Amino acid sequence: MTGRPVPLGRDPRGPVGRAVALLATSAAVVLGLSGCMLLAPDSRSDPPADAVETADPAAIGDVDEDLRTFYTQDVRWESCEESFSCATIEVPLDYTDPGRATIEIAAIRAAAPGEAQGTILVNPGGPGGSGVNIVKDSLDYVTSDRLREDYDVVGFDPRGVNRSSAVQCYTDAEQDETRQESYPAGASPDELLDLMTLDAQEFADVCAERTGELLGFVDTESAARDMDILRALVSDEKLNFLGFSYGTQLGATYAELFPERAGRLVLDGAIDPSLSNEDITLGQARGFEKALRAYVADCRQGSECPYTGTVDDGVRQVQDLFAAVEREPMTADDGRRVPISTFVQGFILPLYDNGNWPTLTQAVSDALQGDVSTMLYLADLAAEREPDGTYAGNSTAAFLSVNCLDYPMTSDPAQMRADEQELVAASPTFGRFLAFGGVTCDAWKYPPVLDPAPVRAAGADPIVVIGTTGDPATPYEWSTALAGQLESGVHVTWEGEGHTAYGRSNDCIRDLVDDFLLDGTVPEDGARC
To answer: Which phi and psi angles does 499 have, rounded to 5°?
Structure first.
């Protein structure tokens, strides 16, 4: 294998990155230690009893006869991870031919301490984020005490992700190799594009060979249909859902498919489903450049900031640092090579949460002194690499696999170069690192099956859409667009920095969301916190 980075296009955590951003939040607290804080609620310290459950007939409702066996399956919930229950659920590989083959969806449940009023399904983002991990490791972060008191909380790994029937691409060793390689300095634009194309083809071939036909069925619409089976199997007549980042696209797709079954849905860090992949990438480029400026301005207020002069000067110093690493990749204490792609991956991660900005400042200060280990630590968190060299998930492979099915992408070289120029104009710092995403999907074995389009979800109950004014990964205007498209959309604003709001903002957002999910109290459309 060539080992060079596969072109990703838009940032591989965004508009997706709740799971990785949560890891970074924990990591910022324990920077310098060897891992992340794993949070498990004390109220669930006793292992739950194993149970076999079948859907309440009222929750099944009218379903096609060829799908009924999936809605009526017995589900064995078994004690796992000390204080949770885990189950594996069968769903059709292909919803147009349910009898063709089945795949498995992994789910985890944190049961309410008393009688629950229902279940809330949680998705942390991605595509590629693990709902099992977010419940297992960070339940206290993504749900409030009130919510956990009255609801069972269920996380699941969508099709293609981690513990479910998963996309398989590079091995751990191959991923390590890829993240240490770079394109040759001095290569012409044509030579670089040729190298990207070769690497993308190799990656696509490996994914197709190791994954099999599942690779053609990991689109968002299929994942949303899986959620309806999950809804029935926990015996809820309507879906209650808390989706972050890409999870908002999953939730909006569900509401469009099943408006009459959409219950209390909260979509935080919203994606505008009408945007093309190129529009999403451009919006992220602007968002991360804006977040960089906010971070530098904040850093300059402190006494140990590595940037000097004005905000513009500080941004140019970041660009100079990137250029230096691109000319001469750095080497970490553990001997791993850190090329510009991995360096930028580590730099971008803390921009998801302003609480992590001090960690980024430390990483930059260290890098300026020749020590890249902190930046590599952040990049490893983004890539889900454990200290022992294993990878905890398959987020990058799943991210690419889902997006290649969800979005038709531009692969014409002239158009991709024109798009690159537009990205650089929008983000002089990050733009070119977000370009050429169409190269990978052009090599993909399976063509896209979806097209971007507005969602209306006519007849659905009120759907709460939250936007954060300083969100770099899902820019604020996407939330207003989604809320406007939904017939029953209710828009809520958090005036803050970072990606998503609930669980990391303030009491105002928490109380609005909790009152809606627990009591059905719909926030005022246009509410601001």
So the answer is: -95, 120
499 is catalytic: yes
Q: Among positive and negative, which fits the CA dihedral 257, 259, 261, 263?
A: positive
Q: pLDDT tens across 84-143, in order?
A: 999 999 999 999 999 999 999 999 999 999 999 999 999 999 999 999 999 999 999 899
Side chain identity at 279, as an amino acid letter? Answer: D
Rounded to 5°, angle at Cα 221 from 269 and 152: 60
Task: Give yes or no for a contact between 87 and 77, defined as CB atoms under 8 angstroms apart.
Answer: yes
What confidence tens digit (pLDDT) does each residue in 10-24 have? 554 443 333 232 222
Beta bridge partners of 242: 122, 266
What's the rounded Cα separation, in Å, for the pair 88 and 163? 9
Q: Rounded distance, CA 71 to CA 138, Å?
A: 29
491 carries an active-site annotation: no
Q: What tokens were used for 368?
A: 């300026």
* Catalytic residue, candidates 85, 144, 245, 401: 245
Would you tell me how many other CB atoms lie within 10 Å of the CB of residue 395?
A: 26
Q: Which listed residue (199, 479, 499, 514) is catalytic?
A: 499
User: Which of 150, 199, 406, 471 is labelled catalytic?
Assistant: 471
Kindly report the pTM of this predicted structure: 0.91
Instruction: Give 146: exposed, middle or buried? Use CB within 10 Å, 0-12, 13-18, 19+.
Output: middle
Cβ(235)–Cβ(59) below 8 Å: yes
**Segment 193-231, tens digit of pLDDT:** 999 999 999 999 999 999 999 999 999 999 999 999 999
Quick check: helix, strand or coil at residue 243?
strand
Instruction: Give the burial string for 425-459 (b: 16+ CB within 10 Å, else e).
Output: ebbebbbebbbbbbbbbbbbebebebebeebbbee
With 0-12 CB in 10 A as exposed, 13-18 as middle and 19+ as buried, what is 343?
A: buried
Is residue 6 very low, low, confident or very high in pLDDT (cuts 50, 70, 90)?
A: very low
